[in-house]
Amino acid sequence: MGFSPLGLVVSIAALAPNLLLIWFPPRDQTPAAHAPRPLEWLERAGQALCLVLPAITRPGNIVWWWTLPAAIALVAYYALWTRYLIDGRLHTLLYEPLWRVPVPMAILPVGVFLATAAWLSNPWIAAAALVLGAGHVPVAIITSRTIASTP
């Protein structure tokens, strides 16, 4: 245990865009999606772990080339947030597929944290990313399917 400035920067960089929903909420009506409660808890636990663990666990041997996949995933995530803001802040844009990736705005943050775990040689961050992925991705898929089935 110990403070990691690099981990803190990654946590803030990956999770801060979600604050945009406070100031720029979707303009359309958000359909009510009902994910199983355990998945919602897993999602929230993963978000909390990914916010805190990278900052409070010291890195191991830093493997600098892993910054590239982490940065690519983060830039792609920011591009999707930009699409959301520019294309009218529609709720569907938060869950729209990109190429063959079904819910990229749920998958990319998991990729950022997994690459960060490899970059900082920190298995705790990897575990947090897996918890996030186990909850966030299924909840996003359920929400995406609800959106698709809503007239």
Please characterize this protein's 3D structure:
The chain crosses the membrane at residues 7-24, 63-86, 98-118, 124-143. Keywords: Membrane, Transmembrane, Transmembrane helix. With 151 residues, the chain is an all-alpha fold. It has one domain (5-149). 65% of the residues lie in helices and 0% in strands. The mean pLDDT is 94.
Number of domains: 1
Task: Tell me the span between the first and last alpha carbons.
Answer: 50 Å
Mean pLDDT, all residues: 94
Number of helices: 6
Helix content: 55-70%
Shape: globular
Largest sheet: none
Keywords: Membrane, Transmembrane, Transmembrane helix
Write a concise synopsis of the structure shown.
The protein has 151 residues and is an all-alpha fold. Helix content is 65%, strand content 0%. Helix 1 (5-15) packs antiparallel against helix 5 (104-119), helix 3 packs antiparallel against helix 6 (123-149) and helix 5 runs antiparallel to helix 6 (123-149).
Main attributes?
mainly alpha; globular; single chain; 151 residues; 65% helix
Helix and strand layout, with pairings?
Layout: H1 5-15, H2 20-23, H3 37-56, H4 67-86, H5 104-119, H6 123-149
Helix pairs in contact: 1-3, 1-5, 3-6, 4-5, 5-6
